[in-house]
Amino acid sequence: MQSVKVVVVGSGVVGLSTAVCIAETLPHCSVTVISERFTPDTTSDGAAGILFSSQFPDIPLERQRRWFKESFDHLLAIAQSSESGEAGVILSSGYQVFKEGPSERPFWADYVLGYRMLSEREMKRFPEHKFGQAFTTIKCECITYLPWLEKRFRKAGGELHHGKVSDLQHLAETYDVIVNCSGLGARSLVGDAKVYPVRGQILKFRAPWVKNFIRDGDGHTYLYPGVNSVTLGGTRQVGDWRLEVDTGDREGILERCFRLEPALHGGEVVGEWVGLRPGRESPRVEVERLKTAEGREVPLVHNYGHGGGGVTLAWGTALDALGLVRQSLAQHPPMARL
């Protein structure tokens, strides 16, 4: 059988997850990832990487459940395996607290471990808050997880190419399937004005005695202990393209996190990071077709717009993208390239 040439545009956690799924599942496909930046220089490398999800308005809830469950189960298996240390995927227990109680049980509560509401006694630790949840989830540290995925991808026969993609039509002349995992780049690459930057600034903080994560339900204040440091955050500045560290944001993060968890006192800042999340009302995971000058029709599978949920949903949406690739090839086998 003629090898089917697949190209994945983008090398963040969504792009690499998608590339691995395709390369491992469809051995008749030769898969190439093209990206301007690879780890450790992607937006994903700075992600806090804690798994739980907001709810998207335009995606059926059952599909969101599947995305979360498949991602959680995939990473849980790694966290419980001998690969945990190399991949940087670990179990993490802690609390999410709210100044106002949420109206309903979140859909992801069925998939994390040990989900329960905090008792009145436990809530005394958080005097500014009225309601809380306790659970064990996954922390996936992309600074090690992405190199681990790259190694897994290469083992499956995949190739990584540095390059800036500015024209998908040009790729259609060479490849049989294009998978667009360009994140914020989709705004210009496919003209999607629904994609926008959400600036995130975080601190890496050394406080090894702090073991449990704590997240304010408003999403603006959180501390996530990891393998080597605690991630303190953060900011969610919509439409802000700045990539420079803001000293005012730094001071605000420290003040809010210290108030939420006084035990952080005595630690020290060991790093800072700013990145632009690919904001979108809902992720775009769907297929369309490009027509080449020779009359070939090339499937274009989109998988982008995850906002701050890239790590949380990457494997689930990658499996969806894999299904769209497989379906497209079954319905329209690639024509020979001239």
Outline the structure in words:
Helix content is 29%, strand content 29%. By secondary structure, the chain is α/β, with parallel strands linked by helices. The strands form 2 sheets. Strands 3, 4, 5, 8, 9, 10, 11, 12 and 13 form a 9-stranded mixed β-sheet that branches. Strands 6-2-1-7-15-14 form a 6-stranded mixed β-sheet. Helix 1 (13-25) links the parallel strand 1 and strand 2 (29-35). Helix 1 runs parallel beside helix 5, helix 1 (13-25) crosses helix 9 (310-331) and helix 2 packs across helix 9 (310-331).
Features:
338 residues, 29% strand, nine-stranded mixed β-sheet, elongated, 15 strands, six-stranded mixed β-sheet, alpha/beta, 9 helices, 29% helix
Percentage of residues in DSSP E strands: 25-35%
Secondary structure: helix percent: 25-40%
Distance between the amino and carboxyl termini = 18 Å
Judged by helices, strands and strand pairing, the structural class is alpha/beta
- Largest sheet composition: 9 strands, mixed
Overall average residue pLDDT: 95
Q: What kind of assembly state do the chains in view correspond to? A: single chain
What is the global morphology? Answer: elongated
Strand tally: 15
Order of helices and strands: EHEHHEEHEHEHEHEEEEEHEEEH
User: Using only CA atoms, what is the Rg?
Assistant: 21 Å
Low-confidence stretches: none
Number of helices: 9
Provide a brief overview of the structure.
With 338 residues, this protein is α/β, with parallel strands linked by helices.
